[in-house]
Design brief:
nine-stranded mixed beta sheet; globular; 325 residues; nucleotide binding; Rossmann fold; Dihydrodipicolinate Reductase, domain 2; alpha/beta; 26% strand; 2 domains; NAD(P)-bd_dom_sf; six-stranded parallel beta sheet; 15 strands
């Protein structure tokens, strides 16, 4: 069976998914929608897909089996509910939104519909990350240190807090999610955000240029996340997990794994493309009618979003925010 796919959004992330889907034999992209029709036509032409005039037209269960929702997080109102209510399986890019109650309603609608769904936290699909998860499953972590430094997203909307949610919610969310995936759920968070340089680079920006976040996990482990989106001369991401009898490090967004303990000291570099593995797992899940190999579902994405939103609330209120279930 070929899985017929519609795509909402024709920007950079949508084109990245299109590239992966072209290499998946089970996948066939048959329709594209974007508010920018010229962009939709350009992307559709790559694979010979049709251009839909509206979201309602694209979300036709007689035409597509699944949809990739790649619209920006500020432009997704009602999309997941509409797709799931029509029995259309869905892949949704991260972050899931900008307001938790709305995402909670969507998660409930998706869960009750029974459709297969996946969220774009592709780093979970690295074999190195899977190896780290297996190693850490019976270990006691007492400290986690994470950071991500680099440049900004090219889209002007990304620099507006009310449209993107900021660097932590939109990009560093991958590190936030990986900590959850490997070490368990967050208990609380305290954060500070700075605006020292962003105006000199982007005068219209309202997002922070740097953040310093501290947290506690449900396990009792404590940790920090530091980040910058205007570090143009040094880009780096890393997560370190410390135990009294081991060390685990993941650098390069998870591509390079280091494990050190009394029996071993290894460094492994992944050769996988996690975005391809993620999209392949979703397409195969739709074809098989089983979600077993999907590593990030909507509820996972919701919990990761809850942490980033709580971090910004903490900065606004100048206090520690407890993370709810």
């Amino acid at each position: 069976m070929t899985v017929k796919i519609g795509m909402i959004g024709a920007g950079g992330i949508a084109r990245h998914h299109l590239k992966q889907l072209q290499n998946i034999s089970l996948a066939e992209v048959v329709s594209v929608y974007d508010v920018n029709r010229e962009g939709a036509e350009s992307m559709a032409a790559i694979v010979g897909a049709r251009v839909s005039d509206t979201v309602d037209e694209l979300l036709n269960p007689d035409v597509i089996d699944a949809v990739f929702i790649c619209a920006p997080q500020f432009a997704r109102e009602g999309l997941e509910e509409m797709a799931s209510s029509r029995g259309i399986h869905l892949f949704v890019e991260k972050p899931l939104g900008l307001e938790l109650q709305s995402v909670q309603r969507k998660e409930q609608a998706i869960r009750e519909s029974g459709v297969i769904h996946s969220v774009g936290y592709c780093l979970r699909y690295y074999d190195t990350v899977q190896q780290a998860k297996e190693y850490l499953k019976d270990k006691t972590i007492h400290l986690i240190q994470a950071h991500r430094f680099g440049g900004s997203h090219p889209a002007p909307w990304w620099r507006q807090q009310h449209m993107s949610g900021g660097h932590l919610a939109d990009a560093v969310t991958h590190q936030v999610d990986m900590i959850r995936f490997l070490a368990g759920e967050y208990r609380n968070v305290s954060a500070m955000f700075g605006h020292n340089s962003i105006k000199s680079v982007y005068p219209d920006a309202t997002i922070a240029d740097a953040g310093a976040v501290t947290f506690t996990l449900q396990s009792g482990a404590v940790g920090t996340i530091t980040e910058s989106c205007v570090s143009h001369y040094h880009s780096e991401s890393e997560i370190k997990f410390f135990g009294h009898d081991f060390f685990v490090g993941l650098s390069g967004n998870g591509q390079v794994l280091t494990i050190s303990d009394k029996d071993q000291q290894i460094t492994v570099t992944s050769r996988l493309d996690p975005a391809y593995e993620q999209d392949k797992a979703f397409v195969e899940a739709v074809e098989a009618g089983s979600s077993d190999n999907i590593l990030c579902r909507y509820a996972d994405g919701k919990n990761t979003l809850a942490f980033t939103l709580a971090a910004h609330k903490s900065a606004e209120e100048r206090g520690t925010i407890e993370i709810g279930d």
